[in-house]
Amino acid sequence: MKLLEDRIRRDGKIKGGDVLKVDSFLNHQMDIRLFGEIGAEFKRRFADVPVSKILTIEASGIGIACIVAQYFDVPVVFAKKNKTKNIAGDAYTTQVESFTHGKTYDIMVSREFLGKGDQVLLIDDFLANGKALEGLARLVRESGAQLAGAGVVIEKGFQPGGDNLRRQGIRLESLAIVDYMDEKTGTIVFRGENP
Ligand code: 5GP
């Protein structure tokens, strides 16, 4: 998605080799007009797939998922990073290893909001090692719902998440795939471009 790639190149900041900061427009301050374009693009790419629910993970996936959901006209459910035990038994839970924080945490979705008959599209801001999306896919599987696919705004193609998910047969659409980035020169190469 050219508009998104141009924006990443203009406003993205490369940190420490493998982290791309896009918090001026994607996951801290949020450019809602851009989110609208992102929603329309996901709708176009998943036009042939029935979707009854969008599932994301707190916190940075929520804003994007809400705008995307307007284009699909379906509810959004977000997996909570669980700290309390009060809903144990009433929820699907799994563990996820965090890319940005380097630790493992539990995520959960109430049984009330996901189940047989749902066709679920996963949405997230970033795909790095794929642990967040794999965790969400496990919750969908546990609930008996169908996984329609996964849409991510930015995939870091030099990390293994995207390939792993595709190998598992998950239909993945990434709106921008960063194949190379260099902190020193500020160079970013997107898939389909010549380095
Ligand atoms: P994964 O589970 O695919 O390794 O990591 C996905 C999660 O880590 C995303 O939801 C995102 O919040 C965070 N993340 C991974 N890589 C980056 C990055 O380069 N920049 C930012 N801002 N977040 C990232």
What would your notes on this structure say?
This protein has about 200 residues and is of the alpha/beta class. It has one domain: Rossmann fold (3-Layer(aba) Sandwich). The chain is about 30% helix and about 35% strand. The chain is built from 5 helices and 10 strands. Strand 9 and strand 10 (about 190) form a beta hairpin. Guanosine-5'-monophosphate binds near residues 126 and 132.
Strand content: 25-35%
Q: What would you call the shape? A: globular
The arrangement of helices and strands along the chain is HEEHEHEEEEHEHEE
Radius of gyration: 16 Å
* Alpha-beta classification: alpha/beta
Quick summary:
With 195 residues, this protein is of the alpha/beta class.
Write the SSE topology.
Elements (H helix, E strand, L loop, with lengths): L1 H10 L1 E3 L3 E3 L10 H14 L7 E5 L2 H13 L3 E6 L9 E7 L6 E7 L8 E9 L3 H13 L2 E11 L4 H7 L4 E10 L6 E3 L5
Parallel strand pairs: 3-4, 3-7, 7-8, 8-9
Antiparallel strand pairs: 1-2, 4-6, 5-6, 9-10
Bound molecules: guanosine-5'-monophosphate (5GP).
